[in-house]
Design a protein that fits this description.
With 312 residues, the chain is an alpha/beta fold. Helices cover 59% and strands 11% of the residues. The chain has a domain of 124 residues: Rossmann fold (3-Layer(aba) Sandwich), CATH 3.40.50. The protein is elongated, with a radius of gyration of 23 Å.
Length: 312
């Protein structure tokens, strides 16, 4: 008899197929031929599979895409699969782009496994190690953005619980905050004011922007989440930053966002360049530069800083 707690961690073969991208036919064939994934039979006679096997099966799918035979990888542990194709390309300077993408995804899956187990020390250590290998910009673009998307997808599909999603978010917030503040330490010169609009509940976009902005020569004033408009205006008028940067998620009403940004410009005493990123940023809004991604943001900042130096 399967106990209640174990029942909650079991899923149907259809759900397993949806979460891993492996067909139900293939999963059944592997179970019959290799004994994995191992199913549990319910009193009703239906088979159910452990949800915790999802990261390993995804790693198997990646290994197969890379050319490995099913007989070699299907019975492998998650750690063995990472050792097989996940870590070697990271250390191989001749790795092809598709190999690098595959190894990046497998590393993200390893972090997802740690999120499943609430392993904060190990997860943060993994962040630090990859940060040191990749550098700040590549870490954001190649690892943090994919991890955020992967966590969101995992939560939507029921692979990750609300608690696990919150745990992952808090770990990312803690890591990114410590990194951009370290990069921003003891800076002088021109200033970037960074904020979100009122009622904003997502700050990972702004934190990643702060990391990228910290690579410039600017000093960052970070106002963070859910900042009242009048506070943004008064702070900008007092400190007169050269750049005002927003991150706006898709949860904002587009028309209200337009009204707030246009109203903000009217209230500023000094003309300030306004830049914004995120899915909630209105397109083609006069006086607001919309930035599509972090690589573009980095290049834009380089040009902006050059123009500041010329004008000064």
């Amino acid at each position: 008899m399967i106990d209640t707690d174990k029942m909650e961690s079991l899923i149907s073969i259809g759900e397993l197929a949806r979460l891993t991208g492996i067909t139900t036919h293939t999963l059944r064939m592997w179970e019959k031929r290799y004994g994995t994934p191992r199913s549990h039979r319910l009193p009703s006679g239906h088979r159910r599979y452990p949800k915790e096997d999802v990261p390993r099966l995804r790693a198997i799918a990646k290994a197969l895409e890379s050319g490995y035979r099913a007989s070699k990888v299907v019975s492998g542990t998650l750690e063995e699969l990472h050792g097989l194709i996940g870590l070697k390309p990271l250390m191989d300077s001749t790795a092809k782009p598709d190999q690098e993408n595959s190894s990046n995804e497998l590393l993200v899956e390893r972090w997802i496994r740690k999120i499943h187990g609430f392993e904060d020390d190990s997860l943060l250590q993994g962040f630090h190690e990859q940060w040191n290998k990749s550098g700040p910009l590549n870490f954001i673009v190649d690892f943090m953005v994919p991890l955020i998307e992967r966590v969101g997808k995992g939560w939507e599909l029921g692979e990750l619980t609300i608690s696990q999603e919150h745990f992952a978010t808090e770990c990312m917030i803690s890591f990114l905050t410590s990194k951009w503040r370290l990069l921003n330490n003891r800076k002088e010169g021109w200033t970037i004011l960074m904020a979100t609009l009122p009622a904003e509940t997502h700050n990972l976009g702004l934190l990643m922007s702060a990391v990228v902005a910290s690579l410039s020569g600017a000093k960052i004033i970070y106002l963070g989440l859910d900042t009242p408009m009048q506070e943004i205006i008064s702070t900008a008028n007092k400190f007169e930053p050269e750049l005002l940067c927003f991150s706006i998620s898709c949860h904002h009403d587009m028309l209200k966002t337009e009204e707030r940004l246009l109203g903000l410009r009217r209230e500023l005493k000094k003309k300030v360049t306004i830049i914004s990123g995120g899915k909630g940023t209105p397109p083609n809004l006069p006086g607001v530069y919309k930035i599509e991604n972090f690589n573009t943001f980095n290049k834009w900042l380089v040009e902006f800083e050059k123009n500041l130096a010329v004008s000064n």
